[in-house]
Amino acid sequence: MVTIAAIRERHVRGNRKQPGGMGHTVVMSIVKFNVLTVPDADAGAVLEERFAKRSGLVENQPGFEEFQLLRPVEGTDRYLVYTRWRSEEDFQNWVQGSSFQQGHEQARADRPGQGHGGPAATGSEVWGFEVVQHVTAPNEQQ
Ligand code: HEM
Description:
By secondary structure, the protein is of the alpha+beta class. The chain has a single domain (4-130), classed as Alpha-Beta Plaits, CATH 3.30.70.100. It is built from five helices and six strands; from the N terminus they run αβββαββαααβ. The strands form two sheets. A four-stranded antiparallel beta sheet has the order 4-5-3-6. A hairpin with an 8-residue loop joins strand 4 (64-70) and strand 5. It is globular, with a radius of gyration of 16 Å. It starts with a helix and ends in a 12-residue tail after the last strand. The relative contact order is 0.26. The site of protoporphyrin IX containing FE has 29 residues, from strand 3, helix 2, strand 5, helix 5 and strand 6.
């Protein structure tokens, strides 16, 4: 199980600079997935319900770019919480700050002593990535 303390201890690497076209240096974002083990469809429904009532604090966090809750359909039965950030440092600031604490208040209260998890998720792990390319349809904003 990934504890909050373990998340906090993760090494801060900062952004890797990518060479861009036309002699520019492009600083790319990073992506962090929280990968949640959810025992069955009932627990999945509880998890989705909890996210429907989420605090909404993350969107005001400096460096936050995007968040999606992804329900598994094929290939896995784990839910993914996809988040995209300007830098590793911005993500770490969120995880260590009060917005993260408040955003996980309910889950933490339900699982005293284990950081959080709540009744819906029985396990979690964090996957981290650097965005190498980011392509959107011409009429999409982000
Ligand atoms: C220790 C593992 C974690 C578990 C089990 C977990 C589970 C949950 C749950 C159940 C909620 C809904 C709110 C609630 O019921 O309190 C929530 C909110 C959220 N979680 Fe986590 N979480 C964990 C760590 C993380 C991490 C590492 C990330 C980012 C990669 C993340 C991203 C989010 C986001 C963006 C929200 C919405 C918060 C807001 O609206 O401000 N979580 N999480």
